[in-house]
Amino acid sequence: MREPGFFVPPMLAVTAQEPFDDSQWIYEVKWDGYRCQIHWNGTLRLYSRQGHDLLTQFPDLQDAGTFLPFPMVLDAELVAWIDGHPSFAALQRKEPVPHRLIVFDCLFAQNRWVLHEPLATRRALLQERVQSAGPLVVSEAVDGQGLALLHAVREQGLEGVMAKDRHSLYHPGQRVRFWQKFLAEYRQWALVPYVSRRKHHGGWLWAIVSAETQLPLGLLPAPRSWSVPEELQQTSADMVPLNPPLHAEVSYRMLTDTGRMRHGRIRRWRR
């Protein structure tokens, strides 16, 4: 394998069936951004998960390599940083906000590739040789305490937790079970004051509104258990009011900056 500059397809995690604690695993915050790969060899290259150039989209990161001590290849997450928190919406919109590279793995250092060395060795190399400086932030990890970290992540409204077997090797381009992600899920009871006649794969959409603030949370496919009243089918209105509104418990991964649900779904409902 060649020196820095040669893109390595990133190793990917599976979603855990249930969060867990394990003394042989380490746990890190899962940041809500773009997976990226940092190559520094006097010239900085910043690759997306698919191997595309990211520096043209985020030119404020062009000096990141100067904070590295020697040629390196690092696995990282690129995030937009607003008021001490990541904003995926700002990242997507390419807003002129500060960006950070959260570095969590080392693939090349000291003139050699370390893909086939255990994660514990790679992380030790990362922590010894790379400091949080400029746009670079070295990810912190906790040993064995995945459930406690997930609880803290939920309290902070973050995306989730990455769980990694400390003995795992790096398998480029593969989705492996010795990296698992715990996705934080948030739930609330909401109102459904309207339904939409706009078809969604042959079905109806429910307009979900916060019961507390009355602000819209988004449109979700109506549950199959809901029978469309005949009077609703006969109207030509795009958004049809329900009187009285339905109540639905919804779950979602995160709320956007505008208060809309990401990855929302209806868990149960009642009249």
UniProtKB/TrEMBL annotation:
Belongs to the ATP-dependent DNA ligase family. Residues 101-186 form the ATP-dependent DNA ligase family profile domain. InterPro entries: ATP-dep_DNA_ligase, DNA_ligase_ATP-dep_cent. Signal peptide: none annotated. The keyword Ligase applies. This is ATP-dependent DNA ligase family profile domain-containing protein. Keywords: Ligase. The lineage of its organism: Bacteria, Bacillati, Bacillota, Clostridia, Eubacteriales.
